Amino acid sequence: MDFFFPTPDGKGREPADKAEALWQACRKGAEQDIGREALARRVYSMSYRHDGNHITATIGKPDFYGRETVMAIIAFPGIYSIRCLVRGFLKIGDPICVGSGDVDRVEDFDPPLVQDEPT
């Protein structure tokens, strides 16, 4: 999957220059929340476990509850920050954080920029 940043309604894609700026803003917000520098990789989709549920978060798709569009997944050593439209992107509420021990599968955008951490 080639890199893109979804429109807020999840039905389209932002133009390439705007997509890059929005992704960088998500990354910087995640770095402030987590308190360290994010990895360079760009995650397209990930499957993980939470409270007995198997969940998949995919860029541009609704979150597990069907309420918000997944805007970005920012990777850190040992943790992923899922930035949904309200929780993380618009900075209203806490983003979803997933420890790498709960992750079953990660798919990066093609081509991966850097493979900082095994998937």
Overview of the structural elements:
The structure is a single chain. With 119 residues, the protein is α+β, with helices and mostly antiparallel strands. It has one domain. Helix content is 16%, strand content 31%. The strands form 2 sheets. It has a 3-stranded antiparallel β-sheet with strand order 2-1-6, with no helix packed on it. A 3-stranded antiparallel β-sheet has the order 3-4-5, with helices on one face. The radius of gyration is 13 Å and the shape is globular. 26% of the residues are buried.
Question: How large, in whole angstroms, is the Cα Rg?
Answer: 13 Å
Strand order of the largest sheet: 2-1-6
Shape category: globular
Structural category is: alpha+beta
Supply the number of structural domains: 1
Number of strands: 6
How would a crystallographer describe the biggest sheet? 3 strands, antiparallel
